[in-house]
Amino acid sequence: MYEPNAEMITLCEKPDDWYCPREYKVESGEWERWGYTYSKNRDSDILTVSNYETIKDDMLERFPDDVMVIPSSHWLCGWIDQLWIRHYNDNGPTKAHYAIMEWKAKLDSYPVSDESDFCQREYDNQIEYLTAHQSLTESQAKSVYGWLSYNGIEWYDDNTWVEDKYVDKAKDALFIDAMDRTEIDIAEWVKIFLDTIIADNQQMRFV
Prior knowledge:
Elements: H1 6-11, E1 34-41, H2 46-62, E2 67-74, E3 78-86, E4 88-89, E5 92-93, H3 95-109, H4 115-133, H5 138-150, H6 164-173, H7 176-204
Antiparallel strand pairs: 1-3, 2-3, 4-5
Helix pairs in contact: 2-4, 4-5, 5-6
């Protein structure tokens, strides 16, 4: 029977107010072998979410019997999802334990678990901001983002938005407002033209 050392016991420690969720069926005494590792919540930044999702997907795919995701509500941040690992069993440390420690070593060396995933989430977040707060279509938002990036004007993180003056500069350079005005002018012209035809037809009826 494996006897966990002090480091392993520390990895499996739980908060004083922690309790075993009833919906997670774990044999009596087994929870002492599990510990939570990475997590995300409603207020997590993009890097935290990216790292969590990347590691979670990898661990669940490789070690489905020794990995769980446990969601819970939280008074401060609304909700929290935690990635739980079975660190050891009767025979010693699990493969999941070694894998999660490898992930920890990688993030200690470099804080991004997957550059492609992180960059895509940043991009999606910025496009969402431009469409929601700058009254742009998705196509226009992508064009504005491309212009800003090409001209070296970027967001520093997901909580820092580009200044309106730079967005306006991009819109002017891409003729976005001008195109909008042209569409409005054409629509107005068509309306006047149709109203004129209708008026002429009505007059002709009385000739």
